[in-house]
Design goal:
The chain is mostly beta strands and about 160 residues long. Helices cover about 10% and strands about 35% of the residues.
């Protein structure tokens, strides 16, 4: 197994230690991730995403979607029922599962819908106002304050 040294990343960056921790967690995780249930991750807009999970055989009351500490946890438990038939072939899996997705900072789940055997979870990135770009005022030596802006050169038509 390969090991990676993230020390150069820690020396050259500030505040990105959570990225290195995430990479370390992914690289050290068990390689054999379960394939059940199948899912898609789709980018629906610039800051919007959708996770679609195939949950055939599960009702809305048997599904659970939770967000815990930047992790989206989707789980399902089939209610205990008495089976009256004998199956010749049983290809629709209704076993319990738990699937975890690591969410980036400022990603928020906005809703979930169960439709035609699919569970759709909508996510959106919401950057707080405090983290958006802002203009900084520069004070001169004589105490005057002026705003410095970057001006584009206009092309001649």
């Amino acid at each position: 197994m390969r090991t990676f040294d993230f020390a150069p990343l820690y020396r050259a960056t500030v505040g990105f230690d959570h990225v290195a921790d995430l990479m370390d967690r992914v690289l050290n995780a068990d390689v054999s991730q379960p394939a059940y249930p199948p899912y898609n991750i789709e980018k629906t807009a610039e800051d919007a995403y959708r996770i679609s999970i195939a949950v055939a055989g599960f009702g809305e009351d048997e599904l659970s979607v939770e967000v815990k500490e930047n992790s989206l946890v989707v789980s399902a438990r089939k209610a205990e029922t008495v089976e009256n038939g004998t199956y010749l072939h049983r290809g629709i899996a209704t076993r319990a599962f738990e699937r975890k997705f690591q969410l980036a900072d400022h990603i928020r789940a906005t809703g979930a819908a169960h439709e035609n055997g699919m569970l759709h979870i909508d996510l959106v990135r919401e950057v707080p106002e405090a983290l958006k770009p802002r203009r900084i005022q520069i004070a001169s030596a004589n105490g005057d304050t002026k705003v410095v802006e970057h001006k584009r050169k206009k092309k001649a038509a």
